[in-house]
Design goal:
WLM_dom, proteasome binding, 9% strand, WLM domain-containing protein
């Protein structure tokens, strides 16, 4: 069997004992316990025995150390790159997204079936399109609750102190059911606009129209699978057909009248859009007239 023995004598071509720690002898025989003081006789070497000396020169050792250092450097660089690639550089938004929500939901307990009213409030508060516009425009509401038809017969919605509370007419006048979800949500967009603007002026009308467009556009993108993130960094610009999309979604319900004789496709599309926009404007006037929010200390 082979073994290694270290001896203190120079390798030919070396500079004395500086290479002792790099010298090894390879020979057959029993492997004794060697120390720096072990002699050839102590090692069991005898005349005529074949011995092979192994050793590394300064140049060979330097090359090996250089290769190891380069390998360690590469590994260090790769680890640093890997750690940096896991960090996305982006502007820091110190406002928590969960600030722009309805913080409390409360049906009117004295009205019939408050559990169903609560479910409707929950549906509104968790509506992905509503959550999107609230986050995009940083709208927060303390309390979302309902209005009793007999107590507020002429009011569909009310915003108290620019978002402290929003009250919506959920029920029919005779308390035999609930109003259309899309109608209630449209009133909600109106009242959310009062978080920013108190008067029903052009500023209000522009933002209110934008919220309704974004609700319709968001839902279209969700159906198409082209909008999956809800964050201020992913705000989209409404497409040129966004208003038409909103009009058909809220007024026509997706149905279209048959074409007129000798009517082109573009003429038919324009007729449908004009009718829908006329209905939308009329609905918005009705909502505005039924809005209980006034630009006073109680609303904005």
């Amino acid at each position: 069997m082979g073994c290694f023995v270290i001896f203190r004598f120079p390798v030919p071509g070396s500079s004395g004992l500086r290479l002792v720690s790099r010298q090894k002898l390879l020979y057959k025989g029993k492997k004794p316990t060697h120390t720096p003081e072990t002699t050839v006789r102590d090692a069991g070497l005898s005349h005529g025995m074949k011995v092979t000396m192994l050793g590394s020169t300064d140049q060979e050792l330097g090359t090996m150390i250089k290769v190891e250092n380069e390998q360690r450097l590469r590994e260090t660089i790769m680890r640093e790159r890997a750690s940096k690639s896991a960090i996305k550089v982006r502007s820091v938004n110190t406002t928590k997204p969960n600030s722009f929500i309805f913080h409390k939901l409360e049906p009117l307990a004295h009205l019939p079936d408050p559990a169903s009213a609560l479910q409707l409030l929950q549906r509104l508060s968790s509506d992905p399109a509503i959550k999107h516009v609230m986050l995009t425009h940083q709208l927060s509401v303390g309390l979302l609750t309902e209005l009793a038809p007999d107590e507020h017969p002429d009011i569909l919605g009310l915003n108290v102190n620019a978002g402290q509370a929003i009250k919506l007419r959920l029920r029919t006048d005779r308390y035999d059911g609930f109003r259309s979800y899309n109608d209630i949500r449209r009133v909600l967009c109106h009242e959310l606009t009062h978080n920013v603007w108190g008067e029903h002026d052009n500023n209000f009308k522009e933002l209110n129209s934008k919220l309704n467009r974004e609700v319709g556009e968001f839902e279209r993108r969700m159906r198409d699978g082209s909008h999956t993130l809800m964050s201020p960094e992913n705000v989209y610009e409404p497409s040129p057909l966004a208003l038409e999309t909103e009009a058909r979604a809220h007024v026509l319900g997706g149905s279209e009248p048959p074409p007129l004789p000798n009517e082109s496709t573009e003429e038919r599309r324009r007729r449908i859009l004009d009718a829908a926009l006329s209905r939308l404007r009329e609905e918005e006037r009705e909502i505005e007239q039924s809005c209980g929010t006034a630009p006073t200390s109680e609303s904005h």
